[in-house]
Amino acid sequence: MRIDPSSKLSMAMLIAAIACISSLAHSADTATAAQSQDLEDSNWQLVRMVVLGGYEFIPTEPAKYVLNFRSDSRLTGSSDCNDLGGYWIQEGSALRFEPLSSTRKLCAPGSLHNNLYLYLRGTEAFKIVDGNMILSTTTDGVELEFESR
Q: Which of 101, 94, 117 is nearest to 46 (CA)?
């Protein structure tokens, strides 16, 4: 039996293409799994907030800025001297808080409460990167990064 050298090359290219496609499909499945992580019964504290203009704020006391994703879609938490509450709605990587409420105490100067509360209300999606949850908002360029507690 004689094999045409060009068919060997074609077969090798076909095998390489199948391996490449399989690898890409696995990568996409892994990314999708990370994106659709269930947030129920998880607790997070703020480690970084990027606001309009690219300004970055890092809380001196991250434990004062907490989100707790409870069962039955209940959200509890704190934002410096204020308490947060409401409901969270997750559909894959889409995430929103409706309604989100806060107590109205006047926090000390330098508090991140006002910005955090404003941007949490505009949350539209999340992703998990290196174990941290990053919230994106309806305001371009704004990111809220939380670490697990």
A: 117
